Amino acid sequence: MFSSLPSHDADSPAQQRLRMVEEQLRNRGIRDERVLAAMSEVPREPFVSPADGPRAYGDFPLPIGSGQTISQPYMVAVMLERLQLQPQDRVLEVGTGTGYEAAVLGSLAAQVWTVERQPELASRAQEILTQLGYSNIHVLEGDGSRGLPGLAPFDKILVAAAAPRIPSALLQQLAEGGRLVVPVGSPHEQQLRVVRKIGDTLEVAGGDPCRFVPLVGEQGW
Known about the structure:
By secondary structure, the protein is of the alpha/beta class. It has six helices and nine strands; from the N terminus they run ααββαβαβαββαβββ. It has a domain at 61-210: Vaccinia Virus protein VP39 (Rossmann fold, 3-Layer(aba) Sandwich), CATH 3.40.50.
């Protein structure tokens, strides 16, 4: 007698992740296979409220408390693809939230430092990331708009909140050849900017329309 291999139920989180990657990411132009693989593996449901668990893989942001949100999966993928992450990278993330994006970063880079100004969110993110076994992600509480000068330079910097302009402190902490991705604009509408540091020159590109919660801090709103 032959027995079939176990399969996930169509509504299981694993199947929802795979559908999310195929329908929301790959079908909309995300091509970085490392990003797609990481987002196929990192669960989203631990990072949202229990009430929002059934909607964790929907094509929209979700509230996580303290006036913050977990970003739409597609926008997470766009930002990560623009960073062009490498396995050896040291990464700074500004705006931890509950830690989902940090978890994906931790699957793609060597070390991740992530800064959250809301104590309750920083604490929750640390708890979730520890439970999931991420030892290369370091959660700090503070003003992320100022970066972490004592740990700089960083190969990649990701800002998960909207700034009125590209924070000069973060530019100063970017390594040679590094990339910074940040939403820039008004509190209600922004464009995703990609900065690349080459010698004394900063190349600024991008223009993807987006909408993030405001970056609050010394070099934010």
